[in-house]
Amino acid sequence: MLNSRTTVFADECQRLTDTNSTLDEIARNLGRCTRHELAGNHRNTEQIASFAAHFHTGAGTAVLPGRQGPLPRLHRFHERGAADLLILLAETQPKKSIGVIAASQHTQFSLLGSIQNRAPRLKPQLYTSQSKGGMYRNLDLGRPGIVIVHRRSAKGLGFDTVVVPDTHEDAATDPTSAALRMSYYVMATRARQELHLGYESESEPPLLAQVNRRDLQRG
Known about the structure:
single chain
């Protein structure tokens, strides 16, 4: 049970994080406290971090984490291939969180409908800030399963497995674009254990075609 002091502390933390306060501002407003900073990457595997490094736009080179996992994988999808992959992942990894990061609201709802029709037992979740009447504005990130979000909502989230199903949407964008590269860096680093990317076209999107096979598995 929370006491009144704990409740006030939690409310103040929430207010400060909701307003995008800095760490110094949070420490100053909460009073006397000790801040511990962890160096290095503690979220991703070495393979995911190495892939994400292709899109990093900042200065310097980050030290890769030591935790190991499978290579990120690029899939060429047929019409329902993304939904097929998501259903397979959810059924074979029932205790894991699977984040789907889509480029458009159309893709979000298309995948939601396909999964609900074919595998309703999976109970996928969807978040969009554009919904009317408050629908699709809340997520239960504490339960495993599929969570479908838009790219603009991905920063700050983390999932065991991440799927970026529609990289073909970026085929016409300049692959040297800093905004595009940072978007891929953010999406890739949301994944703790596995990363899957997909496209629906004859050829790989130019940005991903630049990534060598040591860091991105095809097929």
